[in-house]
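Quick one: co-fold with DP6.
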Amino acid sequence: MAKTGKARAHTNIALIKYWGKADEALIIPMNNSISLTLDKFYTETRATFDAAFTKDTFFLNGEEANEKETQKISAYLDLVRERAGTELKARIDSTNFVPTAAGLASSASAFAALAAACNEALDMGLSNQDLSRLARRGSGSACRSIFGGFAEWEKGHDDASSYSHPIDADHWEDELSMIFVVINNRSKKVKSRTGMSLTRNTSRFYQYWLDHVEADIAEAEAAIQEKDFKRLGEVLEANGLRMHATNLGAQPPFTYLVADSYEAMSLVHECREAGIPAYFTMDAGPNVKVLVQKKDQQAVIDKLTSYFAPEQIIASDIGIGIEILDEEDAL
Ligand code: DP6
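Sure, here it is.
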């Protein structure tokens, strides 16, 4: 008989970044990171394990994935099977719920949903902490998407000690939102995995990153406890820029940012000059994400649409952690 499980996981955006691995195979990071889970972008995944299957298959957004993508999922399923003590092959059906063509699909929501769906299908009985560890093996940032709101990934030092936990902010996150500025990228894509590895191994500025990131974590934690938006904003913006600065010192140097990324950053600075607190961060691509207080959301959107088209601006509330879906819930 087939064993199935379905789960939904939301993407997360790091306020204090994960950038560089201490262990590439186990995905142990060089530093702790802190994120916010968002409600707008998510992945729903059904995992079906069946003795009748002779190989793993992977369907993404209704279409069978190519050999390379299927191989990646299959390698991940090997970890799951080892952990669950089974040899059953699986069919994985995943759907990404992201605004069309925005290029915002994330490996964070993908592997968090896959780990949770497998846990359900195979009755593995993993705690959220163990699920976080399992999601981490697929993609580091996925270990934070197990939880809603603010989450911190404790870097740890081995497979057992590297996982995320929620940061209790006493519902402060309900007052916040994140505005995405979706920027088209004509330059060659450097995957986050490739970019962080090159930077960690070759960048003259990487030590500078390591020298500051622990203090950034402490500062962000304190700001969250105090619900001090300005304090949190200042440290997240500085941390994001520092991450991007390390890439300029890599050999060869590279950047994820394009002219329109800088345009968005300038507009955020103009918001602040006008007395509206708003702070930006960027990941392994040119899109700019702006953390705002909900009461200022419209004013910041108005400022951004003075240059960007309305369809380039997407606002998201803060999201919840993984959800197990009923069999009836359509994918
Ligand atoms: C810039 O989690 O995608 O978004 O662990 O190699 O799969 P792998 O990398 P990934 O890297 C995310 C990098 C980042 C910062 C962050 O999310 O913390």
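If it helps, The pocket of DP6 is lined by residues 14, 17-18, 27, 33, 107, 139-141, 192-193, 283-284 (CB under 6 Å).
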